[in-house]
Amino acid sequence: MRPYLPSLQSLLAFEAAARHLSFTRAAQELELTQTAISHQIKTLEDRLGTKLFVRVRNALSLTPAAREYLVSVNDAISVLSLATERTRKNKTNTVLTVTCLPTYATTCLIPALPDFQDRHPDITVHLATSATFDEFERNTYDVAIRYGSGRWPSVRADLLHTEQFFPVCAPRLLDALQGRPPVEVLKALRQVRTYFYSMYQDDWPKWLEAAGLPHAEFHGESVFHLQLTSLSAAVEGVGIAIGRTPLIDRDLARGQLVEPFDVRVSSSSSYYVTSPTSKSKQDKVQAFRDWALSYFSHAT
User: Fold this and answer.
1) How much is the pTM?
2) Parallel, antiparallel, or unpaired: how do β-strands 164-168 and 265-266 relate?
3) How far is CA 126 from the centre of its chain?
4) What are phi and psi of 38, to 5 degrees?
5) How confident is the model at residue 208, as a pLDDT?
């Protein structure tokens, strides 16, 4: 048979009342009624089989048994408080810092994150974005979605997405061009809307060569530093842009963007889920890596 252990609530009521020598002030501190404190003390006294408080001239004082018991109760509460605080601090170890390029964060990672958070509610994700690759070299992150060859020193890298690029535009720009040859579509699109470059200056020449249109000329070019801004312009119907998978997959699936041509070019770069080798075996890092590889493989 298990020995009797008083409830934590009754011990807290006893400790507060003993410290203040007042049921009223103990009730205020613990946000209880004075009746509740009295009930907790009475129950504790009944189970212990001894009085803990006595009243002398309207003043509350501790019995000898209570003074001795209070020492152990204080120790027990201190141990519990310390353990609780230590556990709360340890929870900061479940903060996962993830960094990636802004366009990938907006179009791919942020829409998917609720699934990760549902599966791992104990992990808090801190998402940082950077438009340059310098941030990746500092290794101040736990996980990075990196774009490139997959060969980086002191980094574990797992292939997340391959990449293809091709022109995209809003559906309404193609309404009058269905069934026309690519060269006529290209000519018509060039006449009605401006071309938008991304930060990759070789996109259009490479695609035009693959499409058999190497001598096509550009008119009224606009240069955007981020894929995000050039794709936003394309969605708004103000031009045609080069899109890259997986950044445009959701817009294509939703019908916000369409492919005017049936030609895609495979990129030499891909997206990788990476982590510094010093952190790659941490539980939170492995949890994110496994989730990302599974989630995005099914998404594609």
Assistant:
1) 0.65
2) antiparallel
3) 6
4) -60, -40
5) 85
